[in-house]
């Protein structure tokens, strides 16, 4: 795991509750129609995409409750986590927060930056980014850092729409930037 980011293509874990909009995000990036998206089959969670000339290996996992305990099979070798939250799903924001807290506290993911995407911002009944950030209160669910690396862990929120593309490019630019910075840091060592 230690030198995972020296791999050419970073491994990205794409997780969040079922129906959050994970696969739709990839549909947007690859110009597929999100009206045709189906719940992800637990059997086939793999996608390669290219953003700004950077290849990413994205593990687009099923968010079904019964599958969530299998997410951990993808933790080893992970470089970046994308956690997707449906910004219209008030009833399950707390459940999202619990899953996010587990991931943030997972020892195998302590080196991974977290991109938290609040999707479906095109819908009128969305919660605002501020409301969601207040409710999640990230500092209360993040582990106490055990070293300088962990103290510098980057966590970034974006409010996005896979329907109209709002903030999708910016989000992935952030991922590519995190990867490049990490490669630079490892070269210096
Ligand atoms: N309006 C709107 N609908 C969206 C957006 N993103 C996803 N959806 C819809 O939300 C539903 C779920 O999207 P998926 O991408 O399948 O969700 P998922 O997180 O991959 O779900 P699982 O694979 O079951 O874990 C679909 O009906 C999408 O069309 C968005 O940004 N805006
Ligand atoms: Mg899916």
- The structural domain count equals 1
The whole-angstrom Rg is 16 Å
**Molecular shape:** globular
> Which structural class should the secondary elements be placed in?
alpha/beta
Name the CATH architecture.
3-Layer(aba) Sandwich
How many strands in all? 6
CATH class: Alpha Beta
Give the low-confidence spans. Answer: 1-6
- CA distance, first residue to last residue: 16 Å
Count of DSSP-assigned helices? 6
CATH topology: Rossmann fold
Write down the overall mean pLDDT: 91
| H/E series | EHEEEHEHHHEH
Give the helix level as a range of percent: 25-40%
Please list the strands of the largest sheet in the order they lie side by side: 2-3-1-4-5-6
Proportion of strand residues: 15-25%
Largest sheet: 6 strands, mixed
Assembly category: single chain
Under CATH, the homologous superfamily reads P-loop containing nucleotide triphosphate hydrolases
Ligand names: guanosine-5'-triphosphate, magnesium ion
Record keyword descriptors for this entry.
globular; binds magnesium ion; single chain; Rossmann fold; 189 residues; binds guanosine-5'-triphosphate; 6-stranded mixed beta sheet
Notes on the structure:
Pfam families: Arf. Mg(2+) binds at residues 23, 40. It is a single chain. The protein has 189 residues and is α/β, with parallel strands linked by helices. It has one domain (11-188): 3-Layer(aba) Sandwich (Rossmann fold), CATH 3.40.50. Helix content is 30%, strand content 19%. The chain contains 6 helices and 6 strands, in the order βαβββαβαααβα. Guanosine-5'-triphosphate binds next to helix 1.
